[in-house]
Each structure stands twice: as structure tokens, then as C-alpha cells.
TrEMBL record:
Residues 13-465 form the Aldehyde dehydrogenase domain. The lineage of its organism: Bacteria, Pseudomonadati, Pseudomonadota, Alphaproteobacteria, Sphingomonadales. GO terms for molecular function: succinate-semialdehyde dehydrogenase (NAD+) activity. The active site is at E243. This is Aldehyde dehydrogenase family protein. InterPro entries: Ald_DH/histidinol_DH, Ald_DH_C, Ald_DH_CS_CYS, Ald_DH_CS_GLU, Ald_DH_N, Aldehyde_DH_dom, Aldehyde_DH_Superfamily. GO terms for biological process: gamma-aminobutyric acid catabolic process. Belongs to the aldehyde dehydrogenase family. Keywords: Oxidation, Oxidoreductase. It comes from Aurantiacibacter rhizosphaerae.
């Protein structure tokens, strides 16, 4: 199967897609109007009725074929991801594997949507629960993980017996279209799962929130847009899954293994040039190890190779567009003006217009914008702290609560900090926490709902109480 750009695009398409490394156009995608998508939703709803009647085992067999095809086409999918998002090829291959893992997981998990029998409350009556598909779903996905953010929404929806319509990010439609093509090749009915690129995301978002056939919306993106979607879905009382902004702390205590902490910081902070929702946004380091940690981190950061994602050996790619680069530059410049000190980087790169140097800043304080805004760039602002209580207070002093990381060896401290951090996900002594087997999601203004694990399947199921009398 051909998954190259020219086979997925349309020379006359309305949506132009650009390579973040060069700014050059790589292709055009066909787009859909509000009326087009409304008709697609109606067709999906009809297809979903039939799909829901199939056995979970039948659905699992088709999802397993989709998983196998996704793995088989890893290299083509990775090239698409790199072309659209700019991330290095090694990271793109890793994303395809990560995305495929959700298809594999939910292919099996869909067969375990168990109900229960409940001890009765009266003679001659029986009480039980069953789980049924929530109905036709809509999803809105971001550009930073254009494969994984789709599979971890679409796979559980299909496994649960739902139809789903997906609006991909305007910057990365081709990865989504490739996944759609592979799913249809695997046997997913065409009407059941559709990808609908658009040049008017606000209009399509409103349609998803108000269409009478949509019963569930899953969104990954900014908190501001998430709040708008919440308001728009209120009239129809839609089921919602929202994975929104983050401000992840990465805390290094004085009893930490510093070499391990540096490795974790590199993985968490600089993956995808810092453009991940769970990447370390603030690095908090205790007084006793501050200077040693910063020096070790500087050595690793300065060894990163900046360049286009398709180039051999690149470990730090471009930002998604000039607006993303300008935001990073603004936050760094503001921090420097407020007293922060550059350890390395702190400037745009001569690799190209879309690039920013891997950066470390010290002397950062919590009142600086760079400590409260989501940076989405390769910048590590380091905040010094003295006590455990102070670290937890600084870490929690944010309206966001998606992911948090810390390094410590004292067992008591590990449990105190793990329980004290107000985040939906906490990693102790590790810089990577995402996996298909665990629930991914945040609290506070970082959203609601979970993706992955058995909890991710429940997001697409309704729990029905059944009473049988006259026994």
C-alpha cells in the first residue's frame, strides 16, 4: 500500500502543509465543509449501529489487522510524521510504535468490557449492569503526536463498538489520512472511521459539539480551546474527554541519582524539541545538588545535534512553525530581562528559521512567565529550592495538573512527594511515563478523562443498570 505524500494529497487541495524545517510546502490535503462533515457524521452513526452489533471478538480481529498493517508500514508513517511535524526520524519511528501499541491493546481490551451481577435488594428480583457503546464519537487531535493522539482515541472507540470522525491538526493531516487508509484496508468499514481535514477548525469544532448524532467528544489541545468546547457541548450534554495544557515540574532532590536525573531530564524536556504536553516545563533542583546537576545537564544538552528531522543523526528538530519559535524566544527574553542567567543556548539557531537552540536558564523564579506558561520548546528553566515542602508548594502552584516528575532515593520522600503532587500522572525516578497500559490524563485545568488502560475503554462505554423482576 502506498502511503507516500503524493498518494494521500491532492494537488488542488485547499489545505497546504509545510515542512517545519524548511518552510516549503510538502503537499495539499482535501478538506471538508461543515455540510460535508455533517453528512459524514450521519453516515458514521448508521454504520455504528451495525458495528455495535458485531461481537467484540470480530471487532478485535479487525483491529489486530490494523495494528499489523501499522507496524508493517512503520517507515512510511515515520517519514510522514517527520515531514509534517519536523521531529527526528528516530522519534517518529518511536511514535509509530507507541501509536500502534494502543491499537493492539484495545483490540484485546474490547473483549473485556465486563458487566456485573449485584446482590439483589428484594426476593424475586435480579440486579445487573452491562456496558454498551456510547454512540457516535468525534475527536480533535494535535500536531505534536499526529499518529499516537489518533490511535489512542480511535482504537478504544472502535473496540467499544462506536463510530468516530476525526479532525486532525491543520499542520499534520497526512499522518491521519494514512492511518485511516490502513484501518479501511484492515476491514474497518469506511463510513465508521473518517478523517476530515479542514481549513476552518473552529467551525468544525462547533459542529462536533452541536451535531445531534454526536454523543462523545475527545479533544487534545490547549486549555483555552478545551474550555470553549466544554461550553459548546453543554446544550447536548456530551460525554467529554479533554487532555489540555500542562506545566510539568521536574524535581531533583539532593538524594537523587544525578546521572539518572539528567538522563530523565533529557528524555522529558528535549524530546520533540520540547513540544510535548507532558514534557518538563520547570526543573526544580535542591540547593545541595543544583550546580552539579546544571553542569551535567549542560554537557548533555550541548551534545544535541540540531537539524532537519530527516537528516542522519539529528536529535533536535525544528519547532512546528515561526509562531512557536517566536513564543519560545519571547519567554526566554522576558526571563533574561527579569534576571535569569543563560547557561547555554538562549538564542535562535542558524540551522534555519524554525529552529531554536537547546537552552538552559538558571536563576528562574516562579513569578516569571517562563515558569507559568507552557513553553513548548527546547528550554529548561531551572528553579532552585531548599526544602521538600517548598518543592511541593512550587510544583503545585499552577492551575494545571497533567504530569510531574521527581528524582529521590529516600523511600519515605518518594511516597510523600508522589502523594503530595497535584497531578494526574506522577513519575518517580523516570522521565518517560506514557504507555498504553496505564491511564493517561490530568486534573485541574489539564482536563478530564483518561486514555489508555482499561479506563480508556470505559470512556467510550455507557454503564446500564438492568433490573429483572417477577422471578
Amino acid at each position: 500500500m502506498n502511503l507516500e505524500l503524493e498518494s494521500l494529497g491532492d494537488a488542488e487541495g485547499a489545505l497546504a502543509v509545510f515542512d517545519p524545517a524548511t518552510g516549503s510546502e510538502i503537499g495539499r490535503a482535501t478538506t471538508y465543509s461543515e455540510d460535508d462533515v455533517s453528512s459524514i457524521i450521519t453516515l458514521a452513526d448508521a454504520a455504528g449501529q451495525e458495528w455495535a452489533q458485531r461481537t467484540a471478538k470480530d471487532r478485535a480481529a479487525i483491529l489486530s489487522k490494523w495494528f499489523a498493517l501499522t507496524k508493517q508500514h512503520t517507515e512510511e508513517l515515520a517519514r510522514l510524521v517527520t515531514a509534517e511535524s519536523g521531529k527526528p526520524m528516530a522519534e517518529s519511528r518511536g511514535e509509530v510504535a507507541y501509536g500502534a501499541s494502543f491499537i493492539e491493546w484495545f483490540a484485546e481490551e474490547g473483549k473485556r468490557a465486563y458487566g456485573e451481577t449485584v446482590p439483589t435488594f428484594a426476593a424475586g428480583k435480579r440486579v445487573m449492569t452491562i456496558k454498551q457503546p456510547v454512540g457516535t464519537c468525534a475527536a480533535i487531535t494535535p500536531w505534536n503526536f499526529p499518529v499516537a493522539m489518533i490511535t489512542r482515541k480511535v482504537a478504544p472507540a472502535l473496540a467499544a463498538g462506536c463510530a468516530i470522525v476525526v479532525k486532525p491538526a491543520e499542520a499534520t493531516p497526512f499522518s491521519a489520512l494514512a492511518l485511516e487508509r490502513l484501518a479501511h484496508e484492515a476491514g474497518v468499514p469506511r463510513e465508521l472511521f473518517r478523517v476530515v481535514p479542514t481549513t476552518d477548525p473552529a467551525e468544525l469544532g462547533t459542529l462536533f459539539c452541536t451535531h445531534p448524532r454526536i454523543r462523545k467528544l475527545s479533544f487534545t489541545g490547549s486549555t483555552a480551546v478545551g474550555k470553549t468546547l466544554m461550553r459548546q457541548t453543554s446544550d447536548n450534554v456530551l460525554r467529554l474527554s479533554l487532555e489540555l495544557g500542562g506545566n510539568a515540574p521536574f524535581i531533583v532532590f539532593d538524594d537523587a541519582d544525578l546521572d539518572a536525573a539528567v538522563e530523565g531530564a533529557m528524555a522529558s524536556k528535549y524530546r520533540n524539541a520540547g513540544q510535548t504536553c507532558v514534557c518538563a516545563n520547570r526543573i526544580l533542583v535542591q540547593d545541595g545538588v543544583h550546580d552539579a546537576f546544571v553542569e551535567k545537564l549542560k554537557t548533555r544538552v550541548e551534545a544535541l545535534k540540531i537539524g532537519a528531522g530527516c537528516e542522519e543523526g539529528t536529535t533536535l528538530g525544528p519547532l512546528i512553525n515561526s509562531a512557536g519559535r517566536d513564543k519560545v524566544a519571547r519567554l526566554v527574553d522576558q526571563a533574561l530581562s527579569a534576571g535569569a542567567k543563560p547557561v547555554t543556548g538562549a538564542t535562535t539557531s542558524d540551522a534555519g528559521e524554525g529552529f531554536y537552540e537547546a537552552t538552559i536558564l538558571t536563576g528562574v523564579t516562579s513569578d516569571m512567565a517562563i515558569a507559568s506558561e507552557e513553553i513548548f520548546g527546547p528550554v529548561a528553566p531551572v528553579i532552585r529550592f531548599s526544602t521538600e515542602d517548598e518543592a511541593i508548594r512550587i510544583a503545585n502552584d499552577t492551575p494545571y495538573g497533567l504530569a510531574a516528575y521527581f528524582y529521590a532515593r529516600d523511600v519515605g520522600r518518594v511516597f510523600r512527594v508522589m502523594e503530595g503532587l497535584e497531578y494526574g500522572m506522577v513519575a518517580a525516578n523516570d522521565g518517560i511515563l506514557s504507555t498504553e497500559v496505564a491511564p493517561f490524563g490530568g486534573i485541574k485545568q489539564s482536563g478530564m478523562g483518561r486514555e489508555g488502560s482499561s479506563h480508556g475503554l470505559d470512556e467510550y462505554l455507557e454503564l446500564k443498570y438492568c433490573l429483572v423482576g417477577g422471578i
